[in-house]
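Researcher: Here's a chain I'd like modeled. Treat it as a single chain, no partners, no ligands.
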Amino acid sequence: MVRQLNIMKSKFSILGCYEWLLESATALIIVSYMYFMTYAFMKLGVGANYQAWQSFLQGRWISYASLLFLFSACWQSWIGMEEITWRYFSSNLARNILLSLVGAALIFYFAWGVAIIWGF
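Model: Modeled as a single isolated chain. Structure tokens:
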């Protein structure tokens, strides 16, 4: 006979596993992007001129890859700051204020990055 386990659905059980999976996936995206950009730098060479880099970075696929990298970096930052506030701030008011400021800053940085990548 199989007994059903009662698992408490708290931030550190169900959501913690979900956040860990997302953080691992975004870390893989970040590492892949950095590896690819290092490979591209080696392929183009240190002595590459401005036109070579401009033509490489203006490709639509590199814009999408850079956008995915930017989103992953922002997501990593959000999860890290959320964990810091949950561990070291006991006051809900202070935690909510800090997370609101961090969230607003990350949205601003993401929008700024999109404007830079897409040339708005």
